[in-house]
Specification:
The chain is globular. Strands 3-2-1-6-9-10-11 form a seven-stranded mixed beta sheet, sandwiched between helices. The protein is an alpha/beta fold. The protein has a single domain, classed as Rossmann fold (3-Layer(aba) Sandwich). Helix content is 23%, strand content 22%.
């Protein structure tokens, strides 16, 4: 079983090798796959805005789907001093500013509490066949997801297949689904024993 540090290096390198064209094509396929998920009867959806330099999944396509379905879209602003994120409703007049870490963030807005968010699209570097994920290691999403309702649906987005097994701590919160450009990986059955 690979450790988290080596997994981060492996997947950062794999992402670096992707062309912009393939990122756009796969991101569009991921958004189309998302339409097959049983998640569209909710109201509050949290989505991450991609860090372009890190070649993350472009969530713009998913954003258009959410807007087309008239959903309440929630985006975050990270505080690197406290390690916490605040969450804001994305509105037509929301001003976005790219932070020094390359993250597009809302300048201000209506704050939304994590407890009312029903679906979270989760960024990740790697994930395994049980829905455990590896992020960048700062713990922003672990702390955020811990505050969400236990019924919140967590959907990872990835360009790659799952690892067989990655290390996880008891504080790690597993995903319900992960969407790749080719398929939806469903972890629901993995967690029935938890």
């Amino acid at each position: 079983m690979a450790d988290k540090t080596s997994l981060r290096l492996k997947y950062k390198k794999l992402r670096e090798e992707l062309s912009e064209e393939s990122i756009e094509a796969m991101s569009l396929q991921i958004a189309n796959q998302a339409l097959k998920l049983p998640i569209w009867n909710k109201t509050y959806y949290h989505i991450f805005l991609p860090i372009l330099e890190k070649k993350e999944v472009n969530t713009e396509y998913l954003l258009h789907i959410l807007q087309g379905k008239d959903k309440s879209i929630v985006i975050s602003k990270a505080n690197f001093d406290s390690g916490e994120m605040k969450h804001f409703l994305l509105q037509e007049n929301t001003v976005l500013k790219t932070s020094k870490y390359g993250i597009p963030e809302p300048v201000s807005g209506i704050e939304i509490m994590p407890e009312i968010i029903e679906v979270v699209f989760v960024p990740l570097l790697a994930y395994d066949t049980s829905g455990n994920r590896v992020g960048y290691g700062k713990g922003f999403y672990d702390r955020f997801l811990a505050k969400c309702n236990k019924n919140t649906i967590l959907v990872g987005l990835s360009f790659f297949k799952p690892e067989p097994k990655i290390p996880f701590e008891t504080t790690d919160i597993p995903l319900n689904f992960c969407i790749t450009s080719e398929k939806i990986v469903n972890f629901e059955n993995c967690h029935l024993s938890l």
